[in-house]
Amino acid sequence: MREGTLTPGQSLPTVRGLALDLQVSPTTVSAAYRALQGRGVLVGEGRRGTRVSQRPPLAVSPAPALPPGARDLAVGNPDLALLPPLGPLLSGFEPEQRLYGGDISDPQLIRLARRDFERDGIPAEHLTVVGGALDGIERVLQAHLRPGDRVAIEDPGFTAVLDLLAALGLVPVPVGIDDSGLLPAALEQACRSQIAALVLTPRAQNPSGAALDKPRARELRQLLRRYPDVIVIEDDHAGFVSGAPAISLCHSKTRRWAHVRSVSKALGPDLRVALLAADELTVSRVEGRQVLGIRWVSHVLQQIVVRLWKDRDVSRRLKSAEQTYSRRRDALLKALRAKGIEAHGRSGLNVWVPVPDEGRVVQGLLDAGWAVAAGDRFRSRSQPAIRITCATLEPDEAVDLAADLESLLKPSRRTLSS
């Protein structure tokens, strides 16, 4: 694999076949396969055999440089102008120095979070603070799973989740989605394949903008009751500015579950704080492992989040930001549909546009001054598409972008769930 003769996605011989070729014991080959699966380099797929991971854990590469003047709609950031300014709220802020042995989580932050979760119907008896949505997801997975376990994920889904599963040696099981989230029939099939966990985004799904509605959530809850051993992990990464109501699949009778709500999109990505509500055992394991590593999320950051959360002006800014993101997203969807272009984006900061040829469309838009993300980074089995981050895109720009995209597309369109 280091030499490049084995490439991502390539199938490997069976254990017996390779043992015969190398004249070694099948036990030796099996042990090697297990070791590489544990490192996230190989993926075992039961009867379908073993293959090289599509995303082996590699060093992070820098983002490609954009041509001068290109409009960056690819990164997925919130609009900096809509984030609350920190200076005024930090004036006179004098956090106390803390020593080892204190509380992991700030009590005020926990009270605010508990009130917020309970208002949304999410059990909040057991809470803790983690360093962002992905940090929370990783800690829950590590608390319960081991290399080789199967995890259901959305398809298309967030690239970082795919990379995280590979790094942990877990096997992704893609589940199709539509604008209302996971497709029940596809999730049923995944559950029958003995998944250990399910990672989903209940609103502002990245990249498609899907959001659970009440009928879909009810159907999925009923389905998951038949598979009580599946750990349900919800990534509410956009939280306050999602543009959709909070709907959860988790309830008091769910055996193992976690709901992670980040403040990054609403209050700022540099505030590495997320609230994790979960069953008692999961919170206990997450906190126990945390104490052995970073010990706690900085209480300075936690106290800043408390000050922002309690400030009435910030609350008004968050409501305005949510409305602005929704207006910009809707403007882009309207402009695309006026050109006969299928697009998806019920919530969040992104719009997902199925296209026949990702590479040609991405390059064509870049030549026209628009940088967007190719869909292959987000897809497992779903059809080609591009992701457009519309967090900063004004309505008049949306019209121009739609016109440029129209000139690049063929008449045939494909659906999100096909």
Provide a brief overview of the structure.
The protein has helices at residues 15-22, 26-38, 87-90, 107-119, 133-144, 159-167, 184-192, 214-225, 264-267, 280-291, 299-310, 312-338, 358-367, 395-408; strands at 42-44, 50-52, 71-72, 127-130, 150-155, 171-178, 181-182, 197-200, 231-236, 257-262, 274-278, 350-354, 370-371, 373-374, 385-389. It is α/β, with parallel strands linked by helices and 418 residues long.
Folded structure, characterized:
This protein is α/β, with parallel strands linked by helices and 418 residues long. It is 38% helix and 15% strand. The chain has 14 helices and 15 strands. Helix 8 links the parallel strand 8 (197-200) and strand 9. Helix 1 crosses helix 2 (26-38), helix 5 (133-144) packs across helix 10 and helix 13 (358-367) crosses helix 14. The longest helix is centred in the C-terminal third of the chain and has 27 residues, at 312-338. The two termini are 33 Å apart.
